Amino acid sequence: MFAFPALPIILVAMLHLTLSSIATGTTSYPDFQLLNVKQTLIGTKKALETSEHQKFPMASESDQGEWKLKLVHRDKLSSNKTTTFHDHSHRFHARMQRDVKRVASLLRRLSGGGSHDGEAAYEVNDFGSDVVSGMDQGSGEYFVRIGVGSPPRSQYMVIDSGSDIVWVQCQPCNQCYRQSDPVFDPADSASYAGVSCGSSVCDRIENSGCHEGRCRYEVMYGDGSYTKGTLALETLTFGRTVIKNVAIGCGHINRGMFIGAAGLLGLGGGSMSLVGQLGGQTGGAFSYCLVSRGTDEAGSLVFGRGAMPVGAAWVPLLRNPRAPSFYYIGLSGLGVGGIRVPVSEDIFQLTELGYGGVVMDTGTAVTRFPTLAYNAFRDAFIAQTGNLPRASRVSIFDTCYNLSGFVSVRVPTVSFYFSGGPILTLPARNFLLPVDDVGTFCFAFAPSASGLSIIGNIQQEGIQISFDGANGYVGFGPNVC
After folding, report:
1. Which of 72, 100, 133, 131 is nearest to 454 (CA)?
2. In this structure, are residues 395 and 434 in contact, taking their beta carbons and an 8 Å threshold?
3. Helix or strand or coil: residue 228?
4. Residue 339's CB: how many other CB atoms inside 10 A?
């Protein structure tokens, strides 16, 4: 049996990664841990104390010479007073409303299926950015700050592991939403170059068209948001790393939930995402760490082979030809308190026709499981938390607790059993979520009427997640943030 050593961090913030034998069924993580209720509630108040127009550095250099972009949750940013919430409850409900629309959008895309394939390669070194969470920005969940054009204009971009296009709002803006920074004007960029209709790049865009010889693009999102404009080749700057001739959408007509961010940085598995355009030089390799809610730190987003950590728990990536943008992984089961939930592995399988399966998604907040699996999972958790006072359901959560007055509580561990053996046991804050600032916590999972499972960003928080596209694996840990 192989096992990753426990990390020397208190239980409430602990990430356990064990690689255990399916045959023996043995594990090396505890069955219970502590949730620090008081500290978590302090974090919800701290998240509201963000000053308006707070700017984060674009990038910082690690000891290995890699470039890390700061990855920040939207809680940390405030673009205008209309998107600022004055208590955690309002913030939570707004987040859940966005999440329901996000999941509905993914299901619609999967029912339609498919995208264009193709290849492009640019020689770059390992580079990256810190990641900002985006709750007050009005769209997306996590943001990076990059430079667009020459000279580079700093812009906040939503990161999305389920999207295959990079786009920014552009002047002249026939219809634009409010963003934190001035709207990018291609007339001020020496490196901007429109793409012709006959270009192979234009052929790889879904819903492409032609206007006056220039390639046009259009992207519609499930919540009614959209971006329409001209496809172009442009220079993007990540700290001191400059990437030329990146195909981006220059959006002149934009609407929806992207308020605050300048656009979207697609990290999906398709050829037109940033990962796809960087091609073989980075091997489809990138790593991110989504910072936990209520902290003052930023997470990180790093590209390149050098971003792949030693000591991670590696799980094979699965390919779905019907949805090449998405990162599927194999999940064999769920655990509560060290006991495997009695659910068939078949419920998580990706079928030959491309239905079902388990998707890793940065844009979805709450993890979804098919209703049958969720009900068994939830009931197992309830059975081991009978000593905790219950509360009424809140939003999409049907299992909630009144923890007001508690400093900390003892709760069972929650684990994901991945195909091949690795077991990811979550820290308590990744499955018991405060929904107000007075002590109501809910079991942070939800049922899905479809066969699709989605591992959302709440469950990914604080854990380094690495995608090795060249070798077809996703890694969990060993680092935390």
Report:
1. 100
2. no
3. strand
4. 14
User: How much is the pTM?
Assistant: 0.84
Classify the phi-psi angles of 184: left when phi > 0, otherwise alpha if psi is within -120 to 50, otherwise beta: beta
Do you know the residue count of the chain? Answer: 481
H or E, element range at 376 = helix 371-383
User: Stretch 84-113: mean pLDDT, rounded?
Assistant: 76
- Residue 273: band (very low, low, confident or very high) from pLDDT cuts 50, 70, 90: very high
Which residues are annotated as catalytic? 160, 361
Buried b (16+ CB within 10 A) or exposed e, 342-372: ebeeebbbbeeebbbbbbbbbbbbbbbbbee
**Contact at 8 Å (CB) between 235 and 122?**
no
Q: Give me 361's structure tokens.
A: 């998604």
d(CA 466, CA 464) in angstroms, rounded, equals: 7
Pairing relationship of beta strands 166-169 and 241-255 according to DSSP bridges: parallel
Phi, then psi, of 107 in degrees rounded to 5: -65, -40
CA distances from 262 to 26, 54, 193, 274, 354 (A): 48, 15, 19, 16, 33
> SS3 helix, strand, coil % of the chain, rounded to 5?
20, 35, 45
pLDDT tens string 150-197: 999 999 998 999 888 999 999 999 999 888 899 999 999 999 999 999
Longest dimension (CA), the chain: 69
Cα–Cα distances in Å, from 80 out to 138, 148, 179, 251, 426?
Answer: 10, 23, 9, 22, 34
| Burial of 5 per CB tally in 10 Å (0-12, 13-18, 19+) | exposed
DSSP state of 388: S
Q: Residue 434's CB: how many other CB atoms inside 10 A? A: 23
As a whole number of Å, the CA-based R_g of the chain is: 22
What DSSP designation does 152 have?
Answer: T
Q: How many CA atoms does the CB half-sphere of 353 hold within 13 Å?
A: 6
